[in-house]
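Researcher: Let's run the pair from yesterday's discussion. Sequence first, then tokens, for each.
Model: Starting with the first of the pair.
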Amino acid sequence: MKIQPVKIILINSANCQYAEFDLSDSLHLVALNNRGKTSIINTLQFLYIDSFKEINLGYTLDQTWKHYFPALGSYILFELNTLTGRKVFGMSATGLGSQPEKFLLDGEFSSSDFIQNITGKLLPKKPDTLFPDVASKLISRNLEPKHHRALLRPFSTKQNPAGLGLVGDSRDYRLFKRLFRQLLQLKGITIKDLKAQIEQVNHSVMEKEQKINVQREFSEPYERVKKDQDSLRRLQDNQETIERVVDLTEEMVRRQGKLVNYHLKSTPLFLKEMEMLEETLETQLSQQSRAKDQLPEIKLAKEDKQQQISREDQRLGVINNDIARYEKLTRECNEIVVELEQQKLANLEQERDDLQGQLYNVRNEDLSALEQSLSFKQEKLTKTQLQLNNLSSTLYVQLKAILTPEQLLRLYQITNSDIWDLLNEKQFTLHDADKLQAFLQQQLGDANGSDIDFPGLTLDLRAISGAGLHQLGNPEFLEKQVQKLTAETAQLSDKITAIREQASIKTRIDDIKQRIELISAVIKKHQEWQAAEVDYMKWLEQSEMIMATIAQHKQEMDAYDEKAYDLRQTVKQLAENVKTSRQHIEVLNGQKRWIENHPPESDWSNIELDTSALSFEQLYDNYRAQTETISHEKQTVTQSLLRLRDRFINLTGLTDVDAIRFLRDQLDAIPEKEKSINDEWKRIFTSFAAHCRGIIDSVDAIDSYLADLNRLLGRQTISNLQSIKIVIGRNEWYRRIQTIREWKENDLPLFGGLDESSIDDLLKSIKPLLEKVNITVADLYDLVLQVVDTHGNEKQYQSLDLESNGTSITVKTIIFISMINQAVSGKKNIGETIRLPFYVDEIDSLDDANAQNIHDIALNLGLIPIFASPKGSGICKRLYQLENNAIGKLSVRQKAKGSGKLLLIQPTFEHVS
């Protein structure tokens, strides 16, 4: 979508009852000369130029209003394609000869909004009827020039919410307006006009002052310079004192203003901070009280925990003692072999019993009797042993084998023991044992009887013991008797020994008892150790649980200690804070009293300061510092002014304030005076050089611009020409200015060092310029149109009017569209999204080829070609014919699409009052 005007609508305006022209593509107005073609196209200035004073329609403003807005109900309207959709920009008459009113409607143009049917007659609405009817579409009325300019520029939500974008991001709207008027009047453009327009296009890159007034540069007399120099020297001699006085005065005024502002804001700030301090103090006291109240609770809780720890420690001590005892017992019992200890115990008990028996057996014995008995027993033992040793050879032994024990007993009873002693092997011989056995058995008879009968002899055997038989002849008896005697001998010997060693035995018994006790204790300890194993495991578990409990209690104790410590620190800090807050309150009251006792003076001006970041203490410090500094500065300024009044007569009659203001002005003028005095001659010549450099640079900028313009011209096809370009020519004035331009500031001597010959040399270069008085950029160059025809012939023109009118119009079109593109260049250029109307009058004076070429070039460059001539052509997309109707108004007919017929544009009015 192109941003452009799409329709021009005239209602009772420009000698038209109703006219509507479609600008969506090229159009051709056909009418006889002086019928109003140019007047109609010139209405585009109302759209693109914001100020009525800058519109050039060929009439005065009063004549313009009468021609375009002859009565209420006269309208000039433009239907627009914009960045925000279709809009209608219009102007309505406000009264005969009065300035019209600008307005803007939303949406497409509709004739019914502006024309009403009254009893079959079509008449334009008057503004008092129109605006209420289109209230829903009305965006704005009574548009001022600034609002009009805003409509032409691009839409932007923040910067330009009303923008329509018709001229894009124009960098120089004023230049655009001049060029646009020129674009509507190309036919009469001259080379002088082209130079002026090119200079305006390049104004932003050229020197602001494009003219040198030579006479003025040499008009200052030397006497004034000398007078100014004396005044300057006196001022410089006292510059340090004046600067100090001025600076002190300015600083003092600023301080006074600050002091007034501080004083005004001190009371609210004091009340605010005092309220905050009192609230802070109350909060601190409350926090301190609450913190103190928590300390006894923590102390009680800590004591309770300490008691719990003590109880647990006691339990742990008991259990640990049991564990230690058991572990010690374990170490001891691991080395005990119970079975050996029990065997030792049994042996020791047996030994003890034996020793005790020995002592018991001899407790009532007589040692001498025991020794006699021992001697007897030993003798008897010896005898018995001897008898036993000899028993094998006795008769008794021989008879024992053949007799029963009873028979042997009877035989023994009836014989004499002595006989048996004699009957040894040497004394008898046993020839036949059987016979002897039979005889003895017969003779001895029954051994049970107490009597025995021999022939002639009866023996009573009851009184005779048979024991001697065993003693004399029974080996077993004798062996037993030997054993018995041996035992009795040993027993008697032991007894005797025991009697002799009673003390030693008792000692041994005591030792054995102690050993028995020790071994019993060891066995008991081992038994206790085995029995205590289950308790030991239980003790270990209890010990761990108790230690965990104690650790937990200690942690809680530590937490209580930390909490108590924090609370004590908090109480201490709060006490410090309370003390500090009370001190701050006292300090604040003291500072407030000092400020109240040192108020600012009533004639001091207030300087608004941002004190939002200041505390009252900072404000007081600033206030006091400012007060003390002001007092010191007042004294210093008064003393310095007394000295300066004696040196400067101009201070007579002036107040201190006015005197200081005068001195400050003189002080500020020192740099300018130094420049104007010390560098006056140098300034004259160097300023000429600078101006000349600026003008030369401006010409160079134009030359650079023409290079771009020539490249654009070179891309266009123009009938009958091979190429065309604009050449800049440097003339004599350019060369003179170029000479002065070469001067350098450092090449010129300082003021006072110029001699007559130096001045004469410089004046020789300036003299021709002095005679001319004023030098402008336009004086320094000439523009020449250089043309090469199809045969290669080159020709130069001093104007834009070539032999071919079509070629002239083409060249002008290309030149001016280039310049206008630069004027509106921003994010978008003409031809990309923006299209501008372009007007060529008397197009029929050109041949068809040139007219077609102009038409095509204009379209390519982003223009909307509008041709006008008495005769029509088929070049443009639309054709409009203007004719006078019966009442002397212009009727507009448009060539219908797809046919060669001209149809009258409706609606038309029979009469407009």
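Model: Moving on to the second of the pair.
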Amino acid sequence: MRVSRQRQDRLVAILLRDGGWMTAAALADLLGVTPRSVRSYVTAVNARVPDHPVIASGPAGYRAHPTGAALLRERDQPPQSAPRDRLHRLIHALIDADDGLDVYETADAFHVSEATLESDLARVRALVREGGELSLDRSGPRIALVGTELARRRLLSSLAHDEMEDGAFDVEALRRVAGSTSVPAEAFGRFKSALAAELGDLGYFVNEFAVADVTLHVSIAVDRASQGRALETVHGTPPAEQERLAEVVGRLAEAALGVTLGRGDRMHLASLLLTRVVVPGAGAVGTAGVDPVVDAAVRAAVARVSNEYLVALGRDEFVERLALHVQNLAHRAREQAWSRNPLTRSLKTTYPMIFEVAVSIAGELSERLGMSIRDDEIAYIAMHVGGELERERRAETRLTATIVCPGYYELHELLRSSITRSLGQAVEVTEVVTRVDPDWKAIDTDLVLTTIEPPTPSESTVRIRPFLTDGDVERVMQAAARIRRGRRLSRLRAELERYFDAGAFVRGLDDALGEEGIIRALGALLVERGVIDDAYVEGAIERERMSSTAFTDALAVPHALRMTASRTAIAIGIADPSVAWGDGRVQVVALAAFSESDREAFQTVFEQFVEVFGERENVQRIIRRGTDFTGFLDELVAIIGR
């Protein structure tokens, strides 16, 4: 049996993201295969780069070798017979063939059977149907792609972006999939740098991801124009700002790429730029230039979410910058020119609460502005939200500390200065004790940093040297992290014991039910107990359609955006083996129903629950030992309390 190339690549991506050792069983759960298949994938991956191991094997399982993975990307050119690559080749052929293709001749040229090609064509139909701008016309053995040149370019861009996974943004790989290789990558690198620099000089806020994305579209435009397929039509009279950016793109393309783009291509690329950049100066004069409807929608969404989630997002500068971003987003939605975000997965996994706030904002904007907002676009909103909340977060996570340093000239002052300089973001020194016999029991700060031995060691007391060393700094940071984590998990433990119900626990979720079926099954258990109604279940399904709630590789937390439960409760479903969810697979599904009176608990439970299940060892332990509700709760509480 031929090993799946796509699953091999997914295996490498998982190992690179994790960075440590993973067992075959854990990898099998994530891939939805057997441990035996994982071992086959490892063998096949290493065979693709025989002179350098890509995946190392050991007693603890498997680990990716970064150098080997880089060589894999450099050297490995997948055969065109591989399904995904054959599909890309077929789409390119259809896009380039003005008169269509002969099915029999194309099957011969691809060295596949006619049945295989017909299967590939069915996949092409699904892709073009999803985009809604193109169609496949069939007349006997001939098949043709029907649609505008702009729609064809969007399909090429979509193919390239679908290659992005787990935060990877390999511009050269994207260009290769898009079929745009007529100009060397180095030239596009020069173009991208020059474009970013000139946009900055013109006063634009430069989003590096957006500039790279526009560079990809420039690459496609160059290739299509060189084939005589330039965009010639310019509708109406473009605004002066678009004309200015069109001149910039055209001039830089000629200087860096040696290509002269026509007016239609220049104006199209300028339009893409306008939907991806923000003028910082606009924020200085409020939301001037922003559509009043967009401005009102953003302010309403921010106000509701701030109240719902008890977060501080009302600062004018934040709202104005977000409104500018949303206006660009609305333009992208109209043009179907979506912007991809390679950080989507890591934002969702690492900052689930921030991402959830962004989903809620996106949901409100969708209703008010009548547009759908994709996961990648939600991630950009999450970046705005995260930046705004970071200052508040830093203040909340800083711990107080007392320095115990017997007085000797200005030694204690020097030590305080060193601690403030090295640990100021994590620790705030509120008191300095210079006695050799301090009243240890009277010290009530989070940490005690002492140069003398305390009478009774404790987790909050850290012995340091009079002249602070790197080792001292590291020990203090570790102690601070333990205290912060302990407090969070203690709160979580108290909350979870209130919210779980033995009657809302299911082991053995059926993969055939799908996401919505599982949500309905778990929701029915809470409906029976009077916690929620059917409308809440439908709300959780609607929330899932907006953006997958698989916040880690093992856990999904479906829930509605509105906190309408009569009381807060969580229904748990255990899947062994894992079930498909979003783009991956999970082993635990926690349907969370929150009430209005427990808004503060939402943050505690939601974020820390995700943290517990973000550690692979925790998941495996709970799955293995949580054979019933009592066992599940015992293991969860034990993990939290350790």
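Researcher: Give me one sentence on the second I can quote.
Model: The radius of gyration is 28 Å.
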